[in-house]
Design goal:
mainly alpha
Length: about 525
């Protein structure tokens, strides 16, 4: 690879990484106030619609855009401009058909879908989100096409535009409907409508971009038939789709079981069940935050591992995989422990308008904080197994973990002494199962088997000490401010506890030599950071 191409690749990766960081930050400022507006019931309606959307989204966009991107990239590298154009014109009709199908399921089958989820009041939220499925399918095709040409900017801009619309329009609509005194099901629908509008705006942006940036290059190549090109797209995309959509499908089934057991097993009304499910949904939002920020750091190592594997450089593969595991341990473990130790204070901090809901969500987050660690491990080990060419194994382990989750939810949530508290327990057991199986498979198929005890022991000790420091500081500051307002005292105590935990953990990482200089080699400015921290 030439220097110019390498720089182009790194620049594209940096653009996408920056866009993801911006989108996640916007998402945080969207979700926190929205959760305070929605309440537990509205949160359940919102989540029910989103989980249906995620399943249809995964099926239609998880693998096919990657397949299109790969084939377009190959055609461009070979100067086959006509084939590149036919790939896009073939794919756009495939994505159009998928979008229409997904839209029809959500729009015309709204009542049936809501009934299957034991949450018929989610009707309006589901219907408001239905056009987004169609738009996102077309978006995925256009993003795959531009990325295949090595241009990441249109994807990045469209993602940020989508997130800004969700924040500016969805949050404003939810607040307006809430202030108008309408039901929480309509508040959730208003918030969801902002998502739909965002996808529409992003779709028109990409249509405009492709219209004004048509390639003038001419070529004499004779492209393959549309049927042959469609077969090639499906052959690459379908296995990836199966892998990436398994967890979305399991989560949707899981939601149906939880709502069903709360109503049919415990005799609760739909509204009461939605309230309990909403408190669990609040905690799940916090669970999903750390992996979103931690995972991209380690993903920069995986392409390097694939290249080393192709060269049969087993020592380099071992070094890279070990570094990835250390980074996951160093970043994921303290996040999980921190969420668990300060679970209720954190929920009280982010839900000032819903103090009772915050107290109800605290015990859920205490369990889910531990689950967060295994989510990070699962994500990394899935990527490593795919790098090793074992693409079917992550699908199998996710399905096995999902079955554990579904069975445990059916048993625990239907128990009157446990009820909704069974949901976070089953989620933890699900991710422990997946991560445990994946760790074994990575150990089994690695050219040089990783030493897990050596990798994880020190980060575990440092994280436990960090958790103790955060808990102690929070308790001390909370007692010192006990005469002030309850929310203000908790906010200051929680932030002080988090700060103390960060400082203690950073010191322990350096003193215990948990992080090595080689772990930072593939991270931008990693060598400078290693010198600054005196790492060897």
């Amino acid at each position: 690879m030439s220097t110019k191409k390498k720089q182009s690749f790194l620049g594209g990766a940096a653009i996408l990484a920056s866009a993801v960081a911006i989108v996640k930050a916007i998402g945080f400022f969207y979700k926190i106030p929205l959760n305070n507006i929605l309440g537990e019931e509205g949160k359940t309606y919102f989540d029910s619609a989103y989980q249906i959307y995620n399943v249809l989204l995964s099926i239609s966009t998880a693998g096919l855009p990657l397949a299109l991107s790969k084939l377009v990239s190959e055609a461009q590298a070979q100067g086959r401009e006509n084939e590149k154009r036919r790939l896009f014109s073939t794919a756009i009709w495939m994505f159009f058909a998928l979008g229409v199908t997904g839209f029809a399921i959500m729009f015309f089958g709204t009542s049936w879908v809501a009934a299957r989820l034991h949450n018929e009041t989610a009707y309006w939220a589901i219907r408001a989100l239905s056009p987004a499925v169609f738009c996102v399918c077309l978006l995925a095709c256009m993003r795959g096409y531009t990325q295949g040409q090595g241009n990441m900017t249109p994807t990045a801009v469209s993602q940020v535009l989508e997130a800004l619309s969700k924040l500016g329009i969805g949050l404003a609509l939810a607040w307006y409907i809430f202030r108008a005194g309408m039901g929480q099901e309509f508040v959730a629908a208003g918030a969801i409508l902002g998502v739909t509008i965002g996808t529409v705006l992003s779709m028109f942006f990409l249509i405009g971009y492709l219209t004004t940036h048509r390639s003038p290059a001419e070529s004499l190549d004779v492209p393959a038939s549309r049927g042959a090109l469609a077969s090639r797209i499906l052959a690459i995309g379908v296995p990836i789709t199966l892998s990436n959509s398994a967890m979305s499908i399991i989560n949707l089934v899981d939601t149906s079981i939880v709502m069903g057991r709360l109503q049919n097993g415990l005799g609760l009304t739909e509204e009461a069940a939605s309230t309990l499910k909403g408190s669990y949904g609040y905690a799940m939002d916090m669970l999903n935050l750390p992996p979103a920020f931690v995972f991209p750091v380690t993903m920069s190592l995986i392409p390097v591992a694939a290249a080393a594997l192709a060269r049969q450089d087993h020592r380099e593969v071992d070094r890279i995989v070990s570094s990835a595991f250390r980074l996951i341990a160093i970043l994921g473990l303290p996040c999980g422990v921190g969420l668990s130790v300060l679970s209720t204070p954190i929920m009280r901090l982010v839900l000032p308008a819903r103090p009772e809901a915050a107290l109800a969500a605290g015990p859920h987050l205490q369990v889910l904080g531990l689950a967060c660690i295994f989510v990070c491990v699962m994500n990394l080990t899935n990527a490593i197994l795919q790098t090793y060419g074992k693409v079917q194994l992550p699908v199998l382990t996710v399905i096995l973990g999902g079955l554990v989750k579904i069975i445990m939810n059916y048993v625990l949530v239907g128990n009157p002494d446990i009820n909704i508290h069974g949901a976070p327990i089953s989620t933890l057991c699900c991710y422990v199962t997946i991560a445990g199986l994946n760790l074994f498979l990575v150990w089994l198929y690695s050219p040089r088997r990783p030493h897990y005890l050596q990798i994880f022991t020190k980060p575990v000790i440092a994280s436990v000490l960090m958790g103790g420091a955060a808990w102690a500081v929070h308790g001390f500051v909370s007692r010192a401010l006990s005469e002030h307002s309850a929310y203000g005292a908790n906010a200051v105590a929680t932030l002080c506890g988090i700060l103390a935990g960060v400082i203690v953990y950073a010191i322990l990482v350096v003193v215990m030599r948990i992080l090595r200089a080689e772990d930072l080699k593939t991270i931008p400015h990693g060598e400078k950071l290693a010198k600054m921290l005196h790492l060897r």
